[in-house]
TrEMBL record:
Organism: Faucicola osloensis
Protein name, as recorded: DUF4124 domain-containing protein
Keyword Cell wall biogenesis/degradation tagged: no
Top-level division of the source organism's lineage: Bacteria
Keyword RNA-binding: no
UniProtKB keywords: Signal
């Protein structure tokens, strides 16, 4: 909507009064809208609620004024306060998060409470007699061929392992594994042909041996494998000897 006021003295007071009345009606209907006042190059005063229209009449923004400054200031103030509140809330959240991340320690009272609970619920160490362990396989005195037959150890327990207890597997008093499984396999590829002593024992949470069983086995050379290798070498040598002389040179 556009209202125009002429600055010439020829305009009657009635026309000017009508323009002012129309302006008042406009302001009452657009109480929340901004009304812009500008002056054209011909001296006409123009009132409009469209900023683009105001710029069309006067390209100089300094000559364009806003009539409802109070409403505008109120809106700007409300928006500013809302933005400030949102910013403060966000800053508080960031500060709280940073404070929580920086202080990762438990309060002393809570730490003491947890320590007390752990003390009253501490794990009791198993004692000798709580378990009986037996090596089921390999059999005592069993002979295995080096490289082709691994040492497959299987043990039996009278009761399941408690928390903190474990089975230790040893070969000639050298610990190979500390696990909870009742089976363990040892490769024989790198072992020399000799007698070996297998030991399976149960240790409690304190590392004390509370049950144990041993078994002796024999590891021999794999003559079958050795014979296969010798036969393969002999066949290769024979094949090489039967080749023509020019292939032997190559």
């Amino acid at each position: 909507m556009i209202l125009t006021k002429y600055s010439t003295d020829n305009n009657s007071s009635l026309r000017y009064s009508f323009a002012l009345m129309a302006l008042m009606l406009l302001l009452s209907q657009l109480s929340h809208a901004q009304v812009y006042k500008t002056t054209t190059s011909e001296g006409q005063v123009v009132y409009t609620d469209n900023i683009n229209t105001a710029y069309q009449y006067n390209k100089n923004s300094k000559n364009i004024s806003v009539l409802d400054k109070l409403s505008t200031q109120s809106q700007v103030s409300s928006t500013t306060n809302q933005s400030t509140t949102t910013s403060n809330n966000l800053n508080n959240q960031v500060n709280n998060a940073a404070s929580t991340a920086a202080d990762s320690r438990l309060p002393d009272s809570l730490g003491d409470s947890l320590t007390g609970r752990l003390s009253t619920q501490s794990i009791s160490a198993s004692q000798q007699g709580d378990y009986v362990i037996k090596i089921v396989s390999p059999e005592a005195g069993q002979t295995l061929r080096r490289g082709s037959q691994p040492i497959e150890i299987n043990v039996a327990l009278t009761t399941s392992l408690k928390t903190g207890d474990r089975i230790v597997y040893q070969l000639n008093n050298q610990t190979l594994a500390t696990i909870k499984d009742t089976s363990y396999t040892i490769a024989t590829t790198t072992l020399d042909p000799n007698p070996y002593t297998i030991t399976a024992r149960v240790e409690n949470v304190l590392g004390e041996v509370i049950a144990q069983d041993t078994r002796t086995i024999n590891l021999i050379s794999n003559n079958v494998l050795y014979q296969k290798k010798r036969k393969a070498i002999a066949e290769a040598q024979k094949k090489q000897a039967n080749q023509p002389w020019y292939k032997k040179i190559l």
